[in-house]
Amino acid sequence: MSYPHLNVWLLQGKALQPPNFDKERAYFQEVDSFELLEESPSPKKPGTWTMGVQVDNVVIPHLSSVLRKWLVYKKLNRSYGFPGSLSKILETPEVSKDPVYHDGFSSSILKTSGKESLQIHSRSNSIQTRFDSSITFGDATGMPIEEEGEDIEVAVTKLSLTSRPSSLDGYRWDSFSALLTACGQCAPSTLTDILSSYCDRESIIKVGEGTYGEAFKVGGNVCKIVPFDGDIRVNGEVQKKSEELLEEVILSCTLNRLRGHESDVVNACTTFIQTIDLRVCQGHYDAALINAWENWDGEHGSENDHPKEFPENQCYVVFVQEHGGQDLESFVLLNFDEARSLLVQVTIALAVAEAAYEFEHRDLHWGNILLSRKGSDTLQFTLEGRQIIVKTFGLLISIIDFTLSRINTGEDILFLDLSSDPELFNGPKGDIQADTYRKMRDVTDDCWEGSFPKTNVMWLQYLVDILLRKKSYDKTHKDDRELRSLKKRLNSYDSAKEATLDPFFSDLFVS
Where is the Protein kinase domain (predicted)? Predict the structure, then answer.
């Protein structure tokens, strides 16, 4: 091959010299050095920096961790949606002149798929993906919301550290902001706002309580109000963190997806309580709630702290859910048929959720099962594509409270690491509930991320024990023997799905 220009240089007796960029290289090295010193100093050892002080042993989270959780949430609950493409989500949000600042953040572990631990830090050094503040609560019917722009799932996979926007005037996005986004908000509401949208506030009555917080009947629904991220202890416990509530929000809406019975649905049931609305609120407890709380306390004697103690900056997540009835502890069963109806509905519901999401409830005590008499004689389930119709004898069951639950959404494994709460396992020996927690710990070997559907079977055994020892209803000695035989056979099952084949349930199926 001929190179005419090279020949000209050679003919003139000059050697061809390569271009010299030494000056340019030196200039850019100087610029690069300056920028590194100003923007991202490299620590001498692994760690990060907070207020100019190096902090060691810090796990830097993946850029897209919270965004991926929002993606899972959006994918599994079509009543929420993005107004635009991924670039819209990641853009710098418009911050109001008087932003709502959130206090009380501290380190906590948020578990993700792939057996990784995501360390969430305080606002001062949080590395979280920004969310678009204009995401809104969508069509409550659950119909898909149209999206514009690039496919969100494809776009998420393209994220890199260079695509992360920096903070704006010190305002950083964190798990609290992600929780706001998951609830379709850009700032907290007040409790008064959400209550007023569902009923006349004077009609509110308290219907239940737990260490998590309070439950109130609001119109035809129930509002579960959970305080979080505060400095004060609530009912003797440290308040939940934003990231824990974010997972519970995602989990609740994942289970909402089981409620469809279309012909192409592989797994479906309506036994898990329906979540209708979600809201992050901030401020003092509403006066109507305090009045309802005091009325309950006067009648039942509350074991919880008085909510008037909450400060003005206290935050809450409000779960607006369907009214599922009375809990099993207070509900009066009439006869053995109703006891069988309870067991078959809970067993098949757990089997459906196992098949769909490797779901384990892990806290299915008698306060987390609601019962009502709604007149229907049968109930339909879909388990791995097979329709199952069971006799209900007019009883309808709802399973609630997924705080301790484990679920595999397909992209994330959401669970609570119960090894961080040793008190849970210190209940008195011989107590049915306390013994069940310890049995779960034995079968999981304290690896709470793993899939152990045997835990569902343990809670079925717990329910059988409750029906034998704690509930009074019309039953015979033969009925008692059947329950004891069922409890014994449950020992041989490793999942609720296996338990559905037990002969105890055979005559409850409608062919």
Answer: 201-510
